[in-house]
Design a protein that fits this description.
The chain has 107 residues and is mainly α. It contains three helices and no strands.
């Protein structure tokens, strides 16, 4: 580039323009490098903070939230069939029908 300038093949204006372009690219490169380093540092800081918080407050140490109130409703029927009185009338009818069919097959 210097020889071309000495021979007069490149004007001083073109040299200045190239110099500015190189400086601008160098600045942009430094900025990108700084942003990358800051991003890595920020991600590392978040990771360390989360690890530290987990060490200071393990899951077994944190109290569960207060229980929410459940609306009152009829108790569920027991598995052994002792709670059949609280069943829906349609269900009771189907159970009675199934029991009567079972008796007919046996007898």
């Amino acid at each position: 580039a210097a020889l071309a300038a000495l021979r007069g093949q490149v004007s001083a204006r073109e040299i200045e323009r190239l110099t500015r372009r190189h400086e601008r690219r160098a600045r942009a490169g430094r900025l990108a490098k700084r942003l990358a380093v800051l991003g890595v540092l920020a991600a590392g800081a978040v990771a360390v903070w989360k690890w530290w918080d987990k060490q200071a407050n393990p899951d077994w140490l944190v109290e569960p939230p207060a229980a929410t109130e459940v609306p009152d409703r009829a108790p569920l029927a027991s598995v052994d069939g002792s709670g059949q009185t609280s069943l829906d009338p349609e269900v009771q009818a189907k159970q009675a029908e199934a029991e009567s069919e079972g008796r007919e097959e046996r007898g």
